[in-house]
Every structure is written in structure tokens, then in C-alpha cells.
Amino acid sequence: MGEEDYSDHLVSERDLSAFETHIRIAKSRAETLEIIRWFGLSEANFVHDFPDFAKKAQELPDGTP
User: Fold this and answer.
1) Max CA distance (Å), the chain
2) Alpha carbons 13 and 10: distance in angstroms, whole number
3) What is the pLDDT of residue 14?
4) In sequence order, what are the residues at sequence separation of 6 or more whose Cβ sits closer than 8 angstroms to the Cβ of residue 48?
5) Residues 6+ away with beta carbon under 8 Å from 56
6) Which of 1, 4, 19, 42 is buried most deeply by CB count within 10 Å?
């Protein structure tokens, strides 16, 4: 999947790298939701554009960030 397939908000390699790093270190679903909102993504775009990360997020505890 090329970078052009990702949300319009993550247009640079640096933005995409920062987003992926934040998602990888998230400790809860609530934290993941906060991250995707901070980067200007909708939950639907997150699930569509990053299915592997979305699956990982579903396995995290609900918790607060």
C-alpha cells in the first residue's frame, strides 16, 4: 500500500512515521483513540487505512490514556 492510500492528513513520511510510532507504543484503546484524533483521522479512516494497527488496538485494554 503506497503512502497515497493513507488519509490526506498523513501526507509526509515524517507524519506517517510519527503516527505509526505513537500507535505502536499506545497502552490502551483510549490512548489509541486520542492519537488518531490528534492526527486528524476518523476511526473509520484508521480502520480502513491501518487495519493491522486497528487489530492491535482492539487487543489493548480499554483504560484511560
Assistant:
1) 33
2) 8
3) 82
4) none
5) 23
6) 19
